[in-house]
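Inputs:
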Amino acid sequence: MQAGVKQKTTIPFWRDERILKILGQVVFIIGLLFAGSIIWKNMQAGLAKQGITLSFQFLKSIAGFDISEMLIEYTRESSYWQAYQVGLLNTLSVSIVGVIASTMLGVILGVSRLSTNFLINRLAAFYLELMRNLSLLVFLIFWYLGVFLKLPKVKEAIIWNGNIFLTNRGVGIPWGIPTASYPTFRLILLIGIILAVIVFFALRAYSKRTGKAPLTTLWTLLTFIIVAVIGWYVLPEKPLTLDVTRVEGLRITGGKILSPEFLALTSGLVLYTSAFIGEVVRSGIQSVSKGQVEAAHALGLSKFKTLRLIVFPQALRVIIPPLTSQYLNLIKNSSLAIAVGYPDVFYVSNTVLNQTGRAVEMISMVMLTYLIFSLITSILMNWYNAKIKLVER
Amino acid sequence: MAENTILPPLAERSGALRWLRKNLFGSWVDSILTVVGALIIFWVVKAVLVWVFTVAEWQVVTTNLRLFMVGQYPLEQVWRLWLALAFIMFLIGNSLAIWARKSYLITILLIAFPLLLALLPFGVEPRKWMIILTVVGVIGWLIGRAKPQALSRHVIIGWIICLPIFILLTRGFTPQEGFMPIVQTNVWGGLLLTFLLTIVGIIFSFPLGVLLALGRRSELPAIRITSVLYIELIRGVPLITLFFMAQLMLPLFLPTGVTIDRVLRAMVAVILFSAAYLAENVRGGLQAIPKGQFEAAQALGLSGFKTMYFIILPQALRLIIPILVGQFIGVFKDTSLVAIVGLFDLVGIAQTVLSQPEFLGLQREVYVFISLIYWVLSYGMSYLSQQLEIKLGVGKR
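Outputs:
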């Protein structure tokens, strides 16, 4: 009897699920490796025919092309690697400006979409529907060629308020030039930041101890601003002098000149992404049940406090995950800079690729760059999300 | 809607003034917002109208309409595209009669759409075809209405073979002198190319996406990790890098002597891209299926494959139909990037048109027109799918 049962439980290995599972995986991996090796061999053969071998040594050679916009030192004599860095920083600046601006515009749009004011509500809805159904590339090209390049020539520049210049060569805005006392001012700003951080943590500790909810962000910002303002007036010499744009022959100089490429790309991305963020914000706010608001009112909280303490924290939990993917989209979409000629990392890499013929290396580098960007953004947002998410029993 | 609604007091119920007060001038902040909003609307509408009717030179669009629609596709072969469209129109008529009997508005809109297009300044020949399309649609609808039950199977088969037929007709299959000479893909262009890229991309990414979604939920680590790596890799990079990879690196991966043409390479990129996003959507649908469904299937003695194929996937896919429509629209908008790698889709054609000396400086007109095409089609698709979802109760049950 005992022996009979034992005999039945031993299954032949080709029907044993555990063995089959392992076998399946082994076959799968072998197949994958096989396909990979074929691709690798083909690539080697193809590259050999072109007379190149895979290597990143070429990054050290002289680039020999100009880049119109840069945040670090770069000339024609710089290396390809430096050119790549210039592009990288340009992508970063577009992404950071874009993320901040589109969040602000998106929140405004999302709140407007829920406004009880009929006109504002409809206006926001119209904007959202308009932008969300456009093709971003087409919009960017239109925005660049049809709007920014159609601004008047330098000689007929639209001058707004005497110091903002709108021309087809760029937009000039007043900008501060550091003076001798600027380093001291920077030190004061640093002190301001440290003080603000101290205030932030003190208020948080106070809030934990007493259960009250002080306006932490507001006070933190205010501390910094007060220190900065005091520093500005205490110093014997103003740390920055205002430099206003002026017309010089066929170009504008002075102040800060924002190129039409940068402006078109950044503002185009912001206008497009903010529509999506607006929808995210709207659905987040709507996800907070009406009972919460009513309960808050019943407890005697003011309208503002209800928003700040009840609605907003709960909405944020719903908003953060989709907001993260919108940020990621914005960063990835900044690669469309190539369509408007803004030298971001993709555009510069493409130029390098065309000059050197190093397709495999450059495309891998660009992909890796964006992957790292995405990874960092995801990590930051996930950290924030973990911090604000509902603490359950 | 049969609930007892409590009517507000008589004083608050009606009156334009009351409506204004409640919705536009509730408080002084509201009033300011209303005035500012009204001013913005006034200025924008005025500027747009003035530009559209007095400044813009629309002949750049009207003279190049055929380029925008089909690119350099040979004029004497365009009838093949119309024929393919007629086939689709017939299927649309059929399907509407069978599955959306009561959606009269949608039916009329869809079937009369070619007629509406005929109002645009097309030539005589296209207009003739547009009228034919509507007639074919009406015939399809009438036939479908007569025998809905018997036909539904054939219509499904029709939809399945519709893409191969379309591509076969577009490409042709006889040598130059024959009845249907082959048209090389390098002259496919305009909206035709945009559509083909989108549809091929979505259809072929579908099986790959479902497999990846299943792979990501698999309990076998090798398969799970591969799927996760693939999905996250593709989702982490911009589509444009994939297009460049397909154009520049794909030829290297193939054995020497084997070449694939540029349109096909772009299609490969769209498929690879769309599959990763689709996989995440399908995974969302799979996660929404309660565990009881798996357990019940197992209790009935279904194998793992049968559980997936007959029980889980049909429910999961049904759940995510609205999301799939959204993704379809997304891919449709994103295919415009092929212009950057030198294909002549709508945007690529726009660039060629603008490089002709007689149309220099008319960027606004051309890109507004292109945007309008994208907008109308994207909005139309999302509107239709919303309406059909409501009518058919898709997505909830």
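Remarks. Chain B touches chain A through 55 residues (CB under 8 Å). DSSP finds 18 helices and no strands in chain B.
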